[in-house]
Input
Amino acid sequence: MRPKEYLDRKIETATAKETAALQQGLLASQLDYLFARSEFYREKCRTAGLRRKDFRALRDLARFPFTTKEELRASQAAHPPLGSHIAANWHDVIRVHSSTGTTGKPSFVGITRRDAKVWTRLTARSFYTQGLRRTDVVVHAAGLTLFVAGLTSKDAIESVGAVFVPLGTGASEKALTIIPLLGVNAMHCTPSYAAYFADFVCRAGMDPQELGLKKLFCGAEPGAGIPAIRAKLEQDWGARVTEGLGNADMAPIIFSECPEQSGMHFNGPDAVVVEIIDPQSNDPQPGESLPLEAGVTGELVYTSLQRECVPLLRFRTRDRVQVLGTSCACGRTGFKLRCIGRTDDMLIVLGVNVFPSAVKDVVSSFHPATTGEIQIVLDTPGPGVAPPLKVIAECCGEPAASAGLKLAIERKIKAALGVPASVELQGAGTLPRFEMKGQLVRRAYENKAAVSAEAQS
Output
């Protein structure tokens, strides 16, 4: 058994009773702050018929309404730059991050000095859980600018005492040079980039394992926790792959996987209250949360506990997760989960919910006959998809001579996911690669509309 090591032992090994008492006290203070400082939540709670005194115990949180991303966008549009849900003075804001959603319009998130301190400690705790130590040299192959997990990861990794190498994105050629020169042994990136960079190294005539990376800290998208994808990354790099999960509006990394690799632990009971709800809950009405026990599946909901700038109450993340367990050999007591996908990425085929990452897992399981790269082609806007589900997959042999592989993949998709699929095989390297988040869905109908509009003009 590995030695049990923690960055914050008291928090990471707290009992359920200790955690509940801590969160109840912190949430009471956060609600005092919200009702006093947030115009957005004063009005939201008034409309719902709720007052501050309606919260007396942690279970009372379920009485409060959800907050949605759409509400936050509307709040910022009406009250720029940070919306009416800002609860700090603007002159106390020290940094602004942003995320870009499906509309392409940035959504801003501000932090105060205290917020930054809380984020840094929570993120450091998450990296430490994944195995980061002060002896590591970490290349950060992800965004460093407005990306919430950029500068915060820098602060967190440095706070542990490790060396932080700010490579950023689009610098694979440079990475090939500096990793061996600096003795880099760890990389923080998306699983898509870990796969992309392995291919890049191979095309340069090298074996990825020659670079000496032993730890891959992955996040920002599902993938690193999917067995077939993880297995290929570990085989390519000869490294241990762990994953983390966060949220741009709440905190950069809230869950992360310990070296047991049996799911991502909840690392932030002193910063966030986590609920899991039925994704079909009506917005923005309040609803009961599901029990945090093995096998439960639903949507993550976050509530801030120590946030000054833009604290959120029951924020719907749209992340679909499954609880894997509530105990671990590492000794941490935070429940463990894996991310299945985004509820807004979910497709419905013949009434069955299908996540693109699950299709990728099935195709990846055929490695080395496949590369694991896929695209799902949509001819019409989802989530409803007329059967069969159209899947393009890369094979490592000649596509024309791989009829048996095509049939085997179609059969396994049907058996594993319960939906019929039509698989088109293409040669290795033909599908696009991504240095940040992978794009597993190709919306062919958008291209058709663009061509039609151009023809009419």
